[in-house]
């Protein structure tokens, strides 16, 4: 029998004067794969220029995109916008070879914010968080789990984590919150 210790419902999971960990509402997300020459037509359909530098982000309204590799992007949108993106990108099929995969049900987003947020991330992230500029994102590992970490501000981060690994990542983050609050 599998026991899931968290209900995985959006909301604040832990809050101290210096730190907050929240599970964000569900969003639409897609993996978009295409050759570099397809970035301009795909960008027109999505409503913004696709960044070509790994880790670079773009946003337009509720849509965001991050370049994860030389031919790979993660597109995030409001859940209600998923069908529009699918239909728009489908119009490229005849002229731009691509793959668009809906990952919406696979991942959850955890928001970590506060003056000790960066310190909390060092508990499971082998990279120096300060090396990630505000407004960028990285696919990386967090305690052995593949995640995409978005740096939204000096003290605000998002972690996209596979739903199956979310209990592990949340346990580590919540334990870290308690340890930092006690210290």
Walk me through this protein's architecture.
With 183 residues, the protein is of the alpha+beta class. It has two domains: 11-26 and 106-182, Probable tRNA modification gtpase trme, domain 1 (Gyrase A, domain 2), CATH 3.30.1360; 28-102, Heterotetrameric sarcosine oxidase (Alpha-Beta Plaits), CATH 3.30.70. The protein is built from four helices and eleven strands. Strand 1 (11-16) and strand 2 form a beta hairpin.
Layout: helices, strands, pairs:
Elements: E1 11-16, E2 19-23, E3 28-34, H1 39-46, E4 57-60, E5 63-69, E6 72-77, H2 82-90, E7 98-102, E8 107-113, H3 117-121, E9 137-142, E10 145-153, E11 156-162, H4 166-182
Antiparallel strand pairs: 1-2, 2-8, 3-6, 3-7, 4-5, 5-6, 8-11, 9-10, 10-11
InterPro entries: SoxG (IPR007375), TrmE/GcvT-like (IPR027266)
Protein name: Sarcosine oxidase subunit gamma
Pfam families: SoxG (PF04268)
